[in-house]
Amino acid sequence: MKKLAIPAILALAACAPEQGVDLEREGALAFAENCAACHGADARGGGPLAEGLPVAPPDLTTLSARNGGTFPRDYVMSVIDGYRRGAHFSDAMPEFGAGDLGPTIMTEGPDGMGTPVPERLLALADYLEGLQQR
């Protein structure tokens, strides 16, 4: 192995999820703590705070159905993070990217390129993908 490859391997290892981190559990916990009050425990938009909001929270179990049957992972993560939001988003939806979304881990995109993603953001997107109605 070349000497230059060692720092790259060490950098990637630093971005890997911590040993013992259960991303499924972390995603469910992140949803319960940050999303369920508005989107509901079942993610269908009927949380206890939804009634008082100027814009009704959407049903998050139909994201794939509204996207031609494919879960829009990048879009979902950018909305949660606060990076990409249209005018139709309520100001009540916090920008979670301003807070601590955990250590960064590398994910591989469809183009084979690595992308750093905060661990808790990835866990939440995985959790939402698992809730999709088939």
TrEMBL record:
Keywords, in A-Z order: Heme, Iron, Metal-binding
InterPro entries: Cyt_c-like_dom (IPR009056), Cyt_c-like_dom_sf (IPR036909)
PROSITE patterns in the record: CYTC, PROKAR_LIPOPROTEIN
Gene Ontology MF annotations: electron transfer activity; heme binding; metal ion binding
Domain spans labelled Cytochrome c: 22-132
Pfam families assigned to the protein according to its UniProt record, in alphabetical order: Cytochrom_C (PF00034)
Name under which the protein is recorded: Cytochrome c
Organism: Histidinibacterium aquaticum
Lineage: Bacteria, Pseudomonadati, Pseudomonadota, Alphaproteobacteria, Rhodobacterales
